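Sequence only, no structure available. Ideas?
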Amino acid sequence: MLKDQLRKTGMVRSLEIENQNLNSQLKNLETENEDLVKENGILVEKLKILENLENRTLSTDCVRGVSSDAGKAAVLKYILEHVKKDATILDLGFGSGIYGKILRAFDYQTIDGVDVYNKNIQEMGLDRIYDGIFVSNIVDFDFEHYDLIIFGDVLEHIELEAAKDLLSGYIKDNKCEHILVSIPYEYEQEEVYGNQYEKHLQPMANREFMEEQYPYLKLVDEAIMPHNGGTIATYIWSRN
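Reply:
I predicted one. Tokens follow.
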């Protein structure tokens, strides 16, 4: 009797509709959770790839250039949003190969590397990361064309005028579609572990300096380096 009376008032129907809506929301949440679990699994696998690539024996007397984790998220974000997986990529001054390792973990297919320092390449497994490795001074290295050129913590190791000529030449001569530059601000450094090429030749770099000397580069990120509290900036240039 009470149920019939409630049904007449529409209360039961309202509760039934509300229950259906709740069930629908629950199913949506379950689907979203499944998607998140899948995405998390993919990210875990990518992190395992990076960890495996990093776990290599390295002699202590011939250490290659290393790179701070700061700013890497901005670099990866730009590349994922603007550079296709089948693009040709050139990693200039690749050092310990961190950019190559990251891009391999995210399924980029064609990556070459250039570095003037010829030690530890096989020890660190860098010949497994890059399709082609060229031992050459960056300013003397010539090529036809790459979709993306990466200067990852490299520009500061090149004399100012040589660096300006190099970048402007790439743009003028249609050598690439994208240039990505990561550079620390106001960071003095001498040679490291006997590697003379680790010396910083543009230690005066800061935001104003970059705007004046490299006006075609666009600032997209500034991050704090945990080990010294300094700033590392990410700049891009795109033909489009």
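The chain is about 40% helix and 20% strand.
Hope that gets you unstuck.
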